[in-house]
Amino acid sequence: MSAAEMEENMKIGFLGADHEVTGSCHYMSIDGYNILVDCGMEQGTDVYENQEIPVNPADIDYILLTHAHIDHSGLIPLMYARGFRGQVYTTKATVDLCNIMLKDSAHIQEFEAEWRNRKAKRSGFKEFVPLYDMAAVEGVLKNFVPCDYDTIISLCDSIKVRFVDVGHLLGSASIEVWAKEGENEVKIVFSGDIGNKNRPIVKDPQYLKEADYVVMESTYGNRTHNKVPNYEEALAAIIRRTFARGGNLVIPAFAVGRTQEMLYYIQKIKRKNMLPEYEGFEVVVDSPLAVEATNIFNQNIDNCFDEEALSMIRQGINPLAFPGLKLSITSNDSKNINFETNPKVIISASGMCEAGRIRHHLKHNLWRPECTILFVGYQAHNTLGRALVEGAKEVKLFAESINVRAEIATLDGVSGHADKDGLISWLNAFENKPKKVFVVHGEDSVCDEFVSCIQNEYGYDAVAPYTGSIYDLVSGEMIAEGNREKKTRRETPTKRANSVFERLVAAGKRLMSVISHNEGGANKDLAKFTDQINSLCDKWDR
Question: Which CATH architecture has domain 231-410?
Fold first, then answer.
């Protein structure tokens, strides 16, 4: 998608999580304003080469963020590093979560860069530069604007937005956008990740009634979660049989959202005394990020908790705490867990086993037939978690081959995403059919299957755009088709070096943007600015 293709205003472009599940990013050009909706990092397989944002990041005016998960927020600091200085609008709870999650992302990248560069020096390879550092995170966090649910906010004369609780994660939202240019007015709804009903802690998704265009996710667009199980009974049964064998129950869980749900279920198991033979059993949360996130959950009770969780709190019960809960913060705390012989529940991140402390716990427990590894969330293609769920007999961890002898289990139905029926219920809540439904955030074939379903069975005008696709928001017509060519090898943005020269080019683009913004300034100031630029050029011109 080129800048020339986006010259005409009132356009929407698709840049990430198109025929893929992660890396959400959408672009709008409205009345001369440039807006991103989400700017996420890809995780797992990168199926298609995502197209670049068609304008200089310094020219992005606003970013609207649906929720804090890294596959929706993770590249916002990269935009700042490349010159973005606009505002990021999102809910209050999402601001709180991004404060810890983006800093954690920067820390991981800086740590990886340090490790890679030690190896590079020995091998003669080029320096590895992280996508962004802590300074970029701290810089962009100052531009976050916390918003209340259900309140219309005017970004400018041409654009109004509203955040509506979508029940996926603490602070998650669908975003309504009212856009105006000249005589043309349209309303676009971005679903964000649509939550599953009847989940603990967070509320059910709130439905919307009106939209001209809808951009909606389709993670589970080709399957249903079946009958909702009794999660406490199912989890208690897994704990019982694991402890009876003398093993540990290891739960890879996303630090934000899924960890808190597991604590909620275990709290109910303990309060109901469902495992009297293991009364007082130990549960360790081994993730500093999860510990911080749990504190944030407890700080956002009034706006985000559902009625069941609020009822517990009114009775003086903390739904996320119980006797036997231990929090592992330091690396020594984490190492000591695997030297203790008593059976326990270990909850650790990351949820797809791609990084973090969970990999150490898998190394120590996967080969033990008495242990259980319990998966409680979506596992993307080409992740270690997906390999284990699909029956891998041997995996590599820290350059060591580990035989898989532990029981591999899943807690069916525990998902932060609505299933096919939930997605259709959310879409059918619109009182009049939108002009067009854009289906995103689903695996390649799932996007196509869901489009076919809502077209043929429900009569929607729907399409699953590819990265780089552009549509006119007045006519609904496609302007650019996008990239349909699949990549031939795995390459994720988190593992790609961002060269120092690329940072220099980004700085140059930002300089051009600053020059443009100073048009019409006082001659004295412009002359001084010109002299400073020329002086810098004289110094570096070689």
Answer: 3-Layer(aba) Sandwich (3.40)
Q: Name 189's Cβ contacts closer than 8 Å, sequence gap at least 6.
A: 174, 175, 176, 177, 208, 211, 213, 214, 215, 434
Residues 352, 379: Cα–Cα separation, whole Å: 6
Q: What is the pLDDT of residue 528?
A: 77
Model confidence over 262-295: pLDDT tens digits? 999 999 999 999 999 999 999 999 999 999 999 9
Spatial separation of the C-alpha atoms in residues 382 and 541, rounded to whole Å: 46
Average pLDDT over residues 425-429: 98
**Residue whose token pair is 């219309």:** 152
For the chain, the structural domain boundaries read 4-224+416-485, 231-410, 503-540
CA geometry: angle 290, 294, 297, nearest 5 deg:
135
Task: Tell me the CATH class for 4-224+416-485.
Answer: alpha beta
Q: How far apart are CA 520 and CA 542, in angstroms?
A: 32
Q: Which pairing describes strands 159-165 and 478-480: parallel, antiparallel, or unpaired? A: unpaired
Confidence of residue 97 (pLDDT cuts 50, 70, 90): very high
Residues 13 and 1: beta-carbon distance below 8 Å: yes
Residue 32 three-state SS: coil
For residues 36 and 25, the answer to whether their CB atoms sit within 8 Å is: yes
Amino acid in the structure at residue 355 = A
Distance between CA atoms of residues 359 and 201, nearest Å: 28
What's the sign of the alpha-carbon dihedral 128, 41, 466, 38?
Answer: negative
- Do 196 and 415 meet the contact criterion of CB atoms below 8 Å apart? yes
Query: Between the CA of residue 46 and those of 172, 490, 495, what are the distances in Å?
Result: 24, 6, 11
Residue 334 CB contacts under 8 Å (≥ 6 apart), including other chains: 286, 328, 357, 360
Nearest 5 degrees, angle CA 296-CA 302-CA 306? 95
